[in-house]
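README, section 4: Worked example with a bound small molecule

Sections 1 through 3 covered apo chains. Here we extend the same pipeline to holo records, where the ligand is supplied as SMILES alongside the sequence. The molecule in this example is NAP. Nothing else about the input changes; the structure line simply encodes the ligand pose together with the chain.
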Amino acid sequence: MDIAEKVFIVTGGSSGLGKAFANELVRNIANVVITGRDLDKLKQVASDLGSNCMWFHADMTKDEDLDALIEFTLDRFGRLDGIINNAGIGGWSPLEELTREKMREVYEVNVFGAAMLASKATKIFKKQNHGAIVNVASTASLSGYKYGTIYSSSKFAVRSMSQCWQAELRPHNIRVIQINPSEVPTAFGQENRDEKELVANKLSPQEIADVLIAALKMDPRGFIPEVTVWATNPF
Ligand SMILES: NC(=O)c1ccc[n+]([C@@H]2O[C@H](COP(=O)([O-])OP(=O)(O)OC[C@H]3O[C@@H](n4cnc5c(N)ncnc54)[C@H](OP(=O)(O)O)[C@@H]3O)[C@@H](O)[C@H]2O)c1
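The generated complex, written as C-alpha cells:
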C-alpha cells in the first residue's frame, strides 16, 4: 500500500514504540493521530512531528474516548486507513500475589481496549473494503514465563484476537498484522515513566517501526500475519 497521504491512528503514540511508529509514518508522508493519557507528552510529540501528526486524548479503557477518537480522525482527515493498537501496560506478579484488580487493569488496556478500537474501526474498514489493523503484542505472546501470568496472558489474548480477525476480515481486504517485539528499552514497566537509555546491543524502537512500515507498504494483495523481532545478541 502506498502510505503517503493515508491516515493512521497510533494508540500510545506519546512514548516509546508508538512515538517511533508515528515518526516513521509521518516521514513516509502519512497522517497520524496519536493518543495517550498524558497531555503534555502527547502535545510535545505532535508538535515535534509537525502538521501531519495530531494528538487526541483518549484512554483505551473508555469506549466513549475511542468513539470520540474515531470521530475526531474522520472529522480532521476525512478517512481512516489503519489503526496501530500499540498502547499497553505491564503487570507481573508471583501467582500467590495475583489480584483481580491488577489483572483487570492490564486486560482493560492490552486486550479490551485493543479489541474495542478494532471493532469500531472495522465498521469503517468493511464499508470502504480496505484497512489495516496492527496489533503490537510481544514475544510474551508466544511463550509464558515465571511471574508472567498477567502480562503474558494478556498478550496471548492479543495473539488469539489477531488470528480470529485475520480469519474474519481477509475477505474484506482488511489486513491484520501482529508485531512481537522482544525487549526494547522504553518507559515500559518504569514506575516513574522515564524512558530508559538505549543500549547498543538491544533493540531500539526504530527496528520495530521499520517492520511496521515494511508491513504496511507491502502491496495489498499480500500481508504479513505476524512478525517477531529479537535483538541479535543482547547477551
Ligand atoms: N518495551 C518493550 O520491551 C516491549 C516489548 C514487547 C512489547 N511491547 C509492547 O509495545 C507497546 C508499547 O510499549 P512501549 O515500550 O512503547 O511502552 P511505553 O513507552 O510505556 O508506552 C506506552 C504507551 O501507551 C500509552 N498508554 C498506556 N496506558 C494507556 C491507556 N489506558 N490509554 C491510552 N494510552 C495508554 C502510554 O501513554 P499514557 O501513559 O500517557 O497513557 C504510552 O504512550 C505495548 O503494547 C507493550 O506491551 C513493549
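What to look for in the output: Residues 121 and 197 are 35 Å apart (CA to CA). The chain has a mean pLDDT of 97.

Section 5 describes how to batch many such records.
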